[in-house]
């Protein structure tokens, strides 16, 4: 087996799996946050005997799920901001910087 093929086989193939798990983890964390909140509310209801304490736990769980979504959004926004600063993705800046000559015809190519 050539050396290039051996190096190809040894490359870690985990990165796509980690990226997929990161996206999946948001959904899982939302569900877990709500379940923990419901469990907390059920525990409070059993300890105090007041039925309205159950809803406090549910509200805490939903708030935690919303917080998880906000944190994930903030993280992605920062990553996209960094990505937009790379020169190869600065298309808008190129368009704004280019000054088009009104007399020039862009419809046909002249060789």
From TrEMBL:
Pfam family membership, one: ATPase_gene1
InterPro entries named in the record: ATPase_put, MFS_trans_sf
Superkingdom to which the source organism belongs: Bacteria
Signal peptide stretch: none
Coiled-coil intervals, chain numbering: none
UniProt keywords, alphabetically: Membrane, Transmembrane, Transmembrane helix
Transmembrane segments: 21-44, 50-70
SUPFAM superfamilies, A to Z: MFS general substrate transporter
Listed name of the protein: AtpZ/AtpI family protein
Lineage summary: Bacteria, Pseudomonadati, Campylobacterota, Epsilonproteobacteria, Campylobacterales
């Amino acid at each position: 087996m050539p050396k290039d093929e051996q190096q190809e086989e040894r490359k870690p193939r985990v990165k796509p799996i980690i990226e997929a798990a990161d996206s999946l983890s948001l959904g899982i964390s939302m569900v877990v946050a709500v379940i923990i909140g419901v469990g907390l509310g059920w525990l409070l209801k059993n300890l105090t005997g007041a039925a309205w304490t159950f809803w406090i736990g549910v509200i805490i769980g939903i708030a935690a799920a919303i917080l998880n979504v906000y944190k994930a959004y903030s993280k992605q926004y920062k990553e996209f901001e960094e990505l937009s600063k790379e020169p190869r993705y600065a298309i808008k800046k190129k368009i704004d910087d280019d000054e088009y000559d009104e007399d020039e015809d862009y419809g046909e190519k002249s060789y």
